[in-house]
Specification:
Elements (H helix, E strand, L loop, with lengths): L1 H21 L5 H16 L1 E9 L6 E9 L16 E3 L5 H8 L3 E3 L16 H6 L6 E7 L5 E11 L5 E2 L3 H38 L5 H22 L3 H14 L12 H4 L7 H7 L1 H8 L7 H12 L34 H16 L10 H10 L7 H9 L1 H10 L6
Antiparallel strand pairs: 1-2, 1-6, 2-3, 4-5, 5-6, 6-7
Length: 410
């Protein structure tokens, strides 16, 4: 009995520590990754996924995050950017949980009792060769009983890595964890929505600055950073913290455009020299938004806003500046190589790539092959060669991001 009490206290202490840590994660994707990871650790589960209720259509779930240790050995994989949806109804396990607000635990999804209204879609197993067996799906329900999504974990494993049923203790622990995770997820959803509203403000001035563009550049940047950091041997905890920050900060890279004239922002053709000199000011305006920095996120946001048009070869702008907050700022000699913060070097590539591959008022999208060729040719000139290497090595993830965050009109 004493051993069981000790185990219960250890589990509770661990849960409280995890829940406290979730409150420090600001970006939605980083949070979903952590929630899914911790739920799997608590139950020794091989795989799992998170579905979120679509904010634009409350009758469906969006397949928002996935883990599978058997199939996805790399921390970077394209499957986390799946854009699949499913209706909130009784036909699927996740849909049933979202509809009823009640958890479902199954020992074998290929042997669902006939009195259950839902079934299991075997398509993923058939395509991948994976064998889904035990499943626990719980609602992500806030303290106000609002369901923001469904947490589904798959295949509890024994010591021989064989799939076994989830225990009653697993169910109690995961349900408690999910309720607390839901609060953090709702908060992260609000943070992203606030940022997208800021981007929308920019879009009113500059039609190129859409929510889809901001999400693509941010997701590209986060994944490029992770690959670059892994190549550098940076510690996992530091990678997670920095990836969380860059995913948000990159969305705000062009926030300073709100200070630029509509005449310049909406000009369909090429800017003349005087207009371009004014356009360059958006980097200064963007950085000034974060003058009174109170966090690492503020610092990174300012670095990106100021430096994402600098070039590896020193021919970018705004260059070295004596006083960013002076009434009149004189732009100096361009920063080069490592003088440019790594986050800005990454966003520079992500932003240019998205501009190349996207339709603009003054151009059609460049073909994919040509866009990649330009990126490769600019390695060592416009872009940090190591950032280009990281980008190219995860290109299938880049494509998945591009497909997920498409413009509404496309």
């Amino acid at each position: 009995m004493d051993r069981e009490i000790d185990q219960d206290e250890t589990t509770l202490s661990k849960l409280l520590s995890i829940i406290e840590q979730l409150g420090h994660i600001k970006d939605l994707d980083a949070l979903l990754d952590r929630v899914l990871l911790e739920a799997r650790k608590l139950t020794n589960a091989d795989a799992g996924s998170i579905f979120l209720v679509d904010s634009a259509d409350h009758t469906r779930l969006i397949f928002s995050y996935i883990h599978n240790d058997t199939l996805f050995t790399s921390p970077i994989n394209k499957h986390i950017y799946s854009s699949q949806t499913l209706p909130i109804n009784n036909q699927s396990i996740a849909g049933h949980v979202a509809l009823t607000g009640e958890p479902v635990t199954l020992n074998d999804v290929y042997d669902i009792p006939p009195d259950r209204p839902y079934g299991f879609n075997q398509e993923f197993d058939t395509k991948s060769g994976y064998r889904t067996k035990s499943v626990m799906a719980v609602p992500l329900k806030t303290s106000r009983d609002k369901i923001v999504g469904v947490l589904q974990i798959i295949n509890a494993l024994n010591d021989r890595r064989e799939a076994v049923p989830f225990t009653e203790t697993d169910q109690l622990v995961v349900n408690y964890f999910a309720n607390n995770a839901a609060v953090a997820i709702e908060r992260a959803l609000m943070t992203r929505e606030t940022i997208l509203r800021m981007v929308k403000m920019c879009e009113l001035r500059d039609p190129k600055e859409t929510g889809a563009h901001a999400n693509r550049v941010a997701a590209y940047s986060a994944e490029i950073y992770q690959r670059w950091a892994l190549n550098k041997g940076i510690a996992t905890d530091e990678i997670k913290k920095n990836k969380d920050n860059i995913r948000i900060a990159a969305m705000l890279h062009d926030l300073g455009k709100v200070g630029i004239s509509d005449t310049i922002l909406r000009k369909p053709g090429k800017l003349d020299a005087q207009e371009f000199a004014i356009m360059k000011q958006h980097c200064l305006y963007g950085a000034r938004f974060f003058e009174n920095s109170t966090s690492d996120l503020d610092v990174i946001s300012a670095e990106i806003a100021l430096n994402h048009h600098e070039r590896w070869d020193g021919r970018g702008y705004p260059g070295k500046i004596a006083n960013l907050y002076a009434h009149e700022v004189r732009m100096g000699e361009g920063k080069q190589r490592e003088e440019i913060p790594i986050y800005a070097r990454i966003v520079a590539l992500a932003d240019v790539y998205d501009a190349l591959i996207s339709r603009r008022a003054y151009k059609e999208p460049f073909p994919e092959e040509q866009s990649l060729q330009i990126i490769q040719e600019e390695s060592g000139r416009h872009f940090d060669p190591q950032v280009v290497e990281a980008f190219l090595s995860i290109y299938e993830v880049i494509v998945a991001i591009r497909e997920k965050y498409q413009e509404e009109s496309s």
